């Protein structure tokens, strides 16, 4: 029973990390209808900025803030300089551009910071809570990650469903020509969408880094799992991204604990294929594009 509880708590903490990455992917998809395969590289750059600030000042929270600012600026610059020229091209063009951007950012990070992984501090203790005489696999830092992810999810829900700005972003993504006729600054909405997604990505990078260390390619496996979580929950649903991330984290934790860690990648692939076959729009996606 203790083993099951540990695996469950470990799955929740890992799932929250997957959910944080999935949220960044969901924001860009909802705002621009683009799957950003450079998300892992972008959050990696922001996390390196945080690491430099922490090393220089000794303050974790200054580094945390620096990562968010760096992510916000990087997202806006990427949309303006890299994505804007291909926004009116076929959707595949933007996907290919994000793959090229991923390669470029990883190369730049390797030249600036080197390819050797470095440690990154956690916001709170990573030692598990002690209940009676048992040390659980769930720490104060894990609780912090879960609470932050829930908070971001609620903020995104309010943004996209209860504010004029969020509705303008969604209208720009689904029907840019009609949105322009209604007076929406579509270009600004796209820039804002990329900036917010990069900010969410930077947040997830700071949360993830203590678990995976920090290097140019450290976040690639997490990005893949985050993508699976986003597809599982539905690319249109922030809440679905969180539920998908937690569900994926629990499933992979049980597979690792009872069947061996070697089967974890296969299990993630099986979950992705099963969802795409049974419900390709995701388990929690309810929006449908109107065809005229």
Outline the structure in words:
This protein has 292 residues and is mainly alpha-helical. It has one domain: Orthogonal Bundle (ABC transporter involved in vitamin B12 uptake, BtuC), CATH 1.10.3470. 74% of the residues lie in helices and 1% in strands. The chain is built from 11 helices and 2 strands; from the N terminus they run ααααββααααααα. The chain has helices at 2-32, 39-57, 60-83, 91-113, 140-162, 164-174, 176-181, 186-212, 220-233, 238-259, 264-278; strands spanning 130-131, 134-135. The protein has a two-stranded antiparallel ribbon. Strand 1 (130-131) and strand 2 (134-135) form a beta hairpin. It is globular, with a radius of gyration of 19 Å. The N and C termini lie far apart (55 Å). The model has no long low-confidence stretch (mean pLDDT 85).
